[in-house]
Structure formats: structure tokens, C-alpha cells
Amino acid sequence: MNRGVRLLMNNMRMRNKLLFSYVLIVMIPVLVVGGCVTFYLREQALNSAIAQTVNNVEKIKSQTANLLRVPTDISNGLMFDKRLREMANRRYPGMVELMNAYHQYKDFNEYTQQYREIATIRFYSYNPTLVNNLEFIPVDSNIERQQWFQTALKGTAINWFYIQDKEDNPVNRLSLVRQIPFPEYNTKGVLMISLSQTELNHMLSKEPFETLIADRNGIVVAATRPQSVGQTLGDLHLGFDVQRAGKGIYEAKINGKSSNIIVDELLPASSVSGFTIISVFSTEHIVQGANRISLIGALCVLAVLVMALILITIISWLITKRLQRLSYELGKVAAGDFHVVSSVEGRDEIGDLSRRFNYMVNSIRQLMAQVYETSEHNNRLELAQKDIKLKMMASQINPHFLFNALESIRMKAHLNGEAEIATTVRLLGRLMRRNLEIGSGKTTVLQELDMVRSYLQIQQFRFGNRLIYEVNLEESATDLSIPPLIIQPLVENAVIHGLENKEEPVTVKVDIAIERRELKIKVEDDGIGMEAGQLTRLLARIRGTEEPEGSSIGLRNVHQRLTLMYGERYGLHIESALQEGTTVYFSIPRGEESNV
């Protein structure tokens, strides 16, 4: 698939590539980002509105609870009020006594004057001597059938109802209803404290969204739109049963518009019935501003994209025109015309390519002239090389003659009783023959150590007891392949520099072993050693790029061969301390021995 895409792109014209790249890299990502930003702004506006509405609902809950605390406190006080107990249970013999009692009892009126949250206070009593004065009302059969009255008689807990009486003086307000028992008289009555509708509506008037408060029967007791008060939640067509759904955030279609509905619940203190607080807002209204901003942004982005497309088209036309011209000139060169001069203008990459094209054509002309001259010169050199080769062959010494001469010297020394000299000559001849025979590029550890031992025996003949050597070889490493002449230069360096400036005997030790799939080779001596600065300079010479002078050439050659064959980590490592000797070691990976 990747090959197919690459082939398709390579076969596409430059102008089409630029346009395709613009659409793929600029236009599509910008449109995608614009869509994401629009969606993000819309969601942010919606989430912000929901968060604001939730906060508003919490505020309304707090304000409603504070408002309901006033009638609650009043009812708690009247529960144990002696004057109310006497007023409700006294038997009045006549109307005069009753009117005087009504005139003297002004507590209800004082509460309504003192608290603006309270509209009216009524007490429903079974005392037959009372008459209805809009504060004390005798209970009749019609009142006994009312739900709120029957609920209040079940206990002394506080109940809240929106009472829609059809009597001469209807309440039509949210009211606190609770039973007031009189144990000493073995009687009871029902207290009703009606709240001011103006205060309830005023509490919701400043809400930005439509907000409702409904009692447990689903009757709206307060609303941002006062005309909704007294209606049921079903009459408002919210799209689902709010009271059954419970507390939460819901989405529904109201009057054909997508809306969010936030539902919360409030249970006032000391009450057995509570309220449902509902806030409704249209999704379209909330995201209208975000949509407007997104539309303006989309139009601006579209205008920029169109302008950019026009600019890309013009630029692509200019580029392809210059490239076509350069391609035409290249075709003429391919046909053999080397006198073409490109005239493509500009200081950009295409202009630079045109100048390099002219330079290339000029260079080709010069090279063609040089090739002819070089060919003539090479012919003359070839004849001279043949002559030199014949002279060199004539001046070469036959190695067999040299080996035969060394063997004659050895036999003569042996016949004269000079066994040490004979052995040394034999070792020297063996060492020279081995050096001449190496040409395959590889040898074994055992063969390399034969040369090392021959060299050490010859040096021991020279220096006598001043040189002591020891060669330790692990048996499993005997037949492993290593580069030729890789150990002998290290031994030679140890002998020369170990015996230098030291009169006492010097021990040269060669250790070869296998550790962790690597061949470890170490050459150490207990000679005079080196100072730290001298060791640093030595390492710089063998690892540097410039060819060193003096005795470091052998170590440098070994180091370079190791690093070229196995990598930097397989080069020479040297440790030395003054008066303590020198150690040179390296390792070869066993997996590579056959490739040496």
C-alpha cells in the first residue's frame, strides 16, 4: 500500500501535488478544527448555562427555605399559645361575648402586619359557639372533605398545600397546615398560615430562565410567570412527569424546541411534605450566541482558505512553468548538446538548480577534454610501469635462497656444538617463513602463539636472564580464528619498553581465555611503566587520525585493525603505572572468528 501511495504521488504533476497537499494538510484540518471549536463553544455555553441554572436553583432553594421558616416559627409558637387555646375552646353564651373575645384577640392580625411573608392566618375549630370572622372558622362538612384538612388531622407535623377553596373567601395561596391539639380540653383544631403570593413571585422574578415551584400535588405555587400559578405541571406540557422523574437534569422538547430541564427538591424543616423546583431553558436560546460567533468565524476561515487556494494556484503555475523550462534544457543536454545555457531566473531553489545546471554542463565539457588528455597520459604510464616491474622482478631476492642460507648457518653451528645459536637461527628462520606465508588474512590462536613463542625465545637469547616470559592458553581457545600478527606486536612492545631503563629481570606474560562468548587476550609486563600523562599521550597517538612516529606505529596498526573489523569497543585498552608495569588487552567476539 505504501508503495502504491508513493508511486501515485511520484506520478502526479507538481501543480496537482501542491493543490492536493493544500487540501489535505491545510483545508481539511482547518475545517475539522473549526467544527471542533464550534462544537466546543456550543457545549461550553450549554454547560455554563446548566451550571448557572443549578446555582440559581440552589439559591432559590435557600431563599424559599428562609421564607418558609417564618410561618414555621409562627406555627411553632401558636402550638403552645395559651390565649389561642382559651379562644378556641371557650363556650360563648352570646354574640356580644364572642365579638368582645374576637376584638381582644389580635395575635393573627399582628403577625400579618409584622411579617410581609404572611398573607392570612386562619384557625379551623370544632367549637360550635364560634362564627366565621375570616380568622376563626367553624368546621363544617365541606371543610372536613378537603384533602388538606384530612391530612392535617393525621398528625401535628407541618404540611404544605396550595389551597384552592371555593368558599366565599378563597385562599388560593401556598399555605402551612398543621393540627393544633388541646389535650386538656380533649379537642383539636387546624391552623392555616397562608404565604404572600407577591413575595413568592418576587423571589423568582429576577431569574433569567423560566422557574417554577410546585407542591406535592403538582400545583404551581410560584413562578417567574405569575399566570402559571395555580396550574398543574401537566397543564404546562413539560414533556414528561417531572415529579416521578425526580431530582436531575433532563432534556425534552417543549413547544417544539429542544430544552433542558433542571429539577431539584426542597423539604422544609419540621415538614412531611416538600416542594419541587423546576428551571427550564431553551437550548437554542443558550447556544445562539455561540452559533453566531461560530458562523462569523467560519465565514472568515472560508474567505482565508479561498484566498490561500488562489495564491497556491498562482504559485504552483509559476513553479511548474520554470520546471518545464529547465526540463526542456535538460532534454537538450541528454541529446548531446553540451553548449546549452539555462536562463531560468530567480534566487530560489529552482534558480539555484539552473545555475548548478550551467555549472554541470561546463564541467562536463572540461571533463571530456581532460578524459582525452588523461587517456594519453595513462598509456604512457602503463608503458613505464611495465618497465619498472621488470626491473623490480630482476632485483628481488629468492626467499628460498634466504631460508637455505639460514639452515646452512644453523647446521654449521650445531656441528660446532653451538646448540643455542643453532636453536636461535632455527627460530629466526621459522619466524621469517611464517611472516612470509601469511596472506590468507586469518590464522588460529595456536599458530599466532607459535610465532610469539619463537619471538620470545629469540629475545631471551639476546637478553638472557633479564627476560622471563609466560604464555597461558585456555585449551578451548586453541583453534579459534584471529587476525594474523595481532598479538606479536603487543609482545614486542612489552619486551622493548619493559626492559628499557630497568636492570632487574622483567617478566612478560601472555594470557588467552574465553569469557562470555568473547576471546580475551592480555599482554602484561612488570617493567618501568608510564606516568599518567605519558599514557594519555600514547592513547591519543594510537586512537588519533594522524600517523604517529616512533614505536607507537605497531600498537596503532593493531588498534585500527581491531576497530575496523569489530567496532570501536573492541580496540586496544592500555593500563600502566610508573614502576608497576604495563598491561595491554583486547577482546574479539567469538561469533566473528570465522570471518576474520
Secondary-structure topology with pairs:
Layout (H helix, E strand, L loop, with lengths): L1 H10 L2 H66 L2 H8 L5 H10 L2 H8 L3 E8 L10 E3 L2 H4 L2 H6 L6 E5 L9 E10 L4 E9 L1 H8 L5 E5 L5 E4 L18 H4 L2 E7 L2 E10 L8 E8 H52 L14 H47 L3 H17 L3 H19 L5 E2 H19 L3 E7 L7 E2 L5 H12 L6 E10 L2 E8 L6 H12 L8 H15 L6 E5 L3 E9 L7
Parallel strand pairs: 1-2, 12-14
Antiparallel strand pairs: 1-5, 3-4, 4-5, 6-7, 6-10, 8-9, 9-10, 11-13, 14-15, 15-17, 16-17
Overall strand count? 17
What oligomeric state do these chains adopt?
single chain
Give start-end ranges of low-pLDDT stretches.
Answer: 386-398, 592-596
How far is the N terminus from the C terminus? Answer: 42 Å
- Average pLDDT across residues? 80
Strand order of the largest sheet: 2-1-5-4-3
Helix content: 40-55%
Subcellular location: Cell membrane
InterPro entries: Bact_2-comp_sensor_kinase (IPR050640), HAMP_dom (IPR003660), HATPase_C_sf (IPR036890), HATPase_dom (IPR003594), Sig_transdc_His_kin_internal (IPR010559)
Membrane topology: Multi-pass membrane protein
GO molecular function, one term: protein histidine kinase activity
